[in-house]
UniProtKB/TrEMBL annotation:
It comes from Cerasibacillus quisquiliarum. GO terms for molecular function: FAD binding; UDP-N-acetylmuramate dehydrogenase activity. It is an enzyme of class 1 (oxidoreductase). The gene is murB2. The keyword NADP applies. One of its GO terms (biological process) is cell division. Keywords: Cell cycle, Cell division, Cell shape, Cell wall biogenesis/degradation, Cytoplasm, FAD, Flavoprotein, NADP, Oxidoreductase, Peptidoglycan synthesis. Belongs to the MurB family. Its cofactor is FAD. Pathway: Cell wall biogenesis; peptidoglycan biosynthesis. This is UDP-N-acetylenolpyruvoylglucosamine reductase. It catalyses: UDP-N-acetyl-alpha-D-muramate + NADP(+) = UDP-N-acetyl-3-O-(1-carboxyvinyl)-alpha-D-glucosamine + NADPH + H(+). The keyword Heme does not apply.
Length: 306
């Protein structure tokens, strides 16, 4: 049943086009998985973000921030309440050696903007598929670089709907983690401190990293990217490969034959099939090597009711 009262309150805050009802989340995730959101909202301003958070609090409605859905599995039963996506907060601008980006901007586009401005420091991000907000959420990294190396400060909205300026140190950034989930912050924008560099040198590094990514990763199929964190002293992909799991399938989900660290949606997989395959990989690697693989990908939402 649609909560008409909540709908009318949402469209008093946001343009009607930015409030979708019973929206399939598989249309908004990189894995192409996920059931319906009761309300799917896409604010255009920081004030709208604050107002929606305050409304959810006042009405005691569940609230979920989706990001751009790159490092995420949404279960087949979808998500109740309000789901927010910030892809419209995607502005990027530079000022000297500083770059400011909205949380909905793709981190790939941010690295390209840095290249245009002849700024070095974000080359590592040229192949990371997530948004700026998601990159801060998990301190995204690749090829020896990570967000905490270049982040100066950020603007967030608290659980109560208040704006807060935080330094990078105040986010407790470490390997693939931050305190953003624990504190319930919603990132509005990030400010990166970069260095002046040579355009051609920066471009050559980015071209090299892009080639490595495209030649090694199964980008031809929907996926959530790297499924598991790197276990101390090992590589997750190597452990999975050495366990003979490449090509293993559960329904439409498959351990990639191109890169064992990826699980791809090969043929209209359900979220449950994807999750079952993750558990199978974890169980097999644990049995063979005694190593417990820890998920890097987030799993949210409800199971499909039978």
């Amino acid at each position: 049943m649609i909560n008409h009262d909540l709908y009318h309150k949402l469209i008093s805050i946001l343009p009607k086009k930015d409030v979708l009802v019973d929206e399939y989340l598989k249309d908004h995730t990189y894995t192409r998985l996920g059931g319906k959101a009761d309300f799917f909202v896409t604010p255009e301003t920081y004030e709208q973000v604050q107002q929606v958070v305050k409304l959810a609090n006042k009405e005691q409605v569940p609230f979920t921030l989706l990001g751009n859905g790159s490092n995420l599995i949404v279960k087949d039963g979808g998500i109740r309440g309000i789901v927010m996506n910030l892809h419209q907060l995607n502005q990027i601008h530079t000022d000297g050696t500083t770059l400011v980006a909205g949380s909905g901007a793709r981190i790939i586009d941010v690295s390209r903007k840095a290249l245009e401005a002849e700024l070095t420091g974000l080359e590592f991000a040229c192949g990371i598929p997530g948004s700026v907000g998601g990159a801060l959420y998990m301190n995204a990294g690749a090829y020896g670089g990570e967000i905490k190396d270049v982040l100066a400060h950020t603007l967030v909205v608290t659980k109560e709907g208040e704006r807060l300026h935080l330094t990078a140190d105040e986010l407790d950034l470490s390997y693939r983690t931050s305190n953003i989930p624990e504190k319930g912050y919603i990132v509005l924008e990030a400010t990166f401190q970069l260095q002046k560099g040579d355009y051609h040198t920066i471009r050559d590094v980015m071209d090299d990293l892009t080639f490595k990514r495209e030649s090694k990763q199964p980008l031809e199929y929907p996926s959530c990217g790297s499924v598991f964190k790197r276990p101390p002293g090992y590589f997750a992909g190597k452990l999975i490969q050495d366990s003979g799991l490449q090509g293993t399938r559960v329904g439409g989900a498959e351990v990639s034959t191109k890169h064992a660290g990826f699980i791809v949606n090969k043929n209209n997989a359900t979220a449950q099939e994807y999750i079952d395959l993750i558990h199978h990989v974890q169980k097999t690697v644990k049995e063979k090597f005694g190593v417990q693989l820890e998920r890097e990908v987030r799993i949210i939402g409800e199971d499909l009711k039978s």
